[in-house]
């Protein structure tokens, strides 16, 4: 079973979180959605409240096949400044496990110091804060175990790419056909 951890911080971009979680669950991955606060209910950037499965402290020491960081301005700042999130990112990087960040969230990867020598992308306004990777203006950028994407509008492509990169290209294709993506 493929294990995925999705971080939810106040101000997360709802499309980037919920759409990806949906794709991962359609792929039958074991998805754990973790709130960065002690409260399971997390409010997104557009005031949509979502219930996480767990709080971050319950998974702080666990390892996942993929960690997924949705964007959103407030969320990205929280992911960048949270010491537990930073520890999880660094630990997964050392183990060469998949790390995915979209929109503003690559600033958390920059903070963790894991982008140097990698290719990456982000929401265009975040480019000045992402200085160590080789920056590309593509929808999805795969650089070894680090995979980044640009914004809400690229979420479906991004999530399907992640399913494929986790070893399930046929499942990604089936989901793409089922949801009439492209």
UniProtKB/TrEMBL annotation:
Signal peptide: none annotated. InterPro entries: Class_I_gatase-like, DJ-1, DJ-1/PfpI, Prot/Nucl_acid_deglycase. GO terms for cellular component: cytoplasm. It comes from the Bacteria. Residues 4-164 form the DJ-1/PfpI domain. It holds the Pfam family DJ-1_PfpI. NCBIfam families: not_thiJ. This is DJ-1 family protein.
